[in-house]
Write a structure and sequence with these properties.
The chain is α/β, with parallel strands linked by helices and about 250 residues long. A 6-stranded mixed beta sheet has the order 1-2-3-6-4-5. Helices cover about 50% and strands about 10% of the residues. It has 13 helices and 6 strands. It has a single domain, classed as Alpha-Beta Complex (Protein-Tyrosine Phosphatase, Chain A), CATH 3.90.190.10.
Length: about 250
Amino acid sequence: MSDVAELPRTIPLEGASNVRDLGGYLTKDGRRVRFGCVFRAAALSNLTAADGAALRAAGIGVVCDLRGGAESEAAPSKLDGVIIHPLSIDPSLGSRLREIAAEREATETEVVEVMCGAYAHYALTWWHRYRTLFELLDQSVDKAVLFHCTAGKDRTGFGAALILAALGVDRATVHSDYLATNRLWTGAASVGASLPPNVAKVLTRVQPDFLDAAFNAVKSSHGSVDAYLEDRIGLDPARRAALRARLLE
């Protein structure tokens, strides 16, 4: 496992949490992901003027919004001076949980199963959004890219895992970055207050089983993560080498 004692490097903001650089992680061939190129975050709808200045100072010029259309319309990003690309991934969790709730109170196990199903759905149904995210990484050679959803944990978490995997970061380190959400996202308490305790316990955190569900779906459908990255994300060997050359030290 890579040395992650002081990672991820965060950007502390007043109006957003779980904002962090994907840089610093070691790859399996001994290189390190560059700082200042790719960032992940929760929603940017409550940014202050100082927050916006801090993000622009970090070099962020491109934002990819993975929230569903209704989410983005209800809480538009407040970040001037950047290009915002809507890469809408509509959340499916709510409808499935409502179906369960119409019959009975959902058990914790059922909520975990719903979450695992959502992650497999990100990988197999919404792959085209992640393909566009990688295309924007290719195109944004002089600007840092930030991608986010609402909490910056699920749709964003899978996206970050794909990027780190494509760069050659080992699975244990990918999981470490993913699980950092549990200490960096500050919105869990307010979201959880409106949910039944057994549902909130699952929905307001991330756990390895969720991310494993996405990668297991990838392996079942494509045989390997590398094959998925090439077939679905469009990273043929030449393009993947170019991405690594730009994003690795």
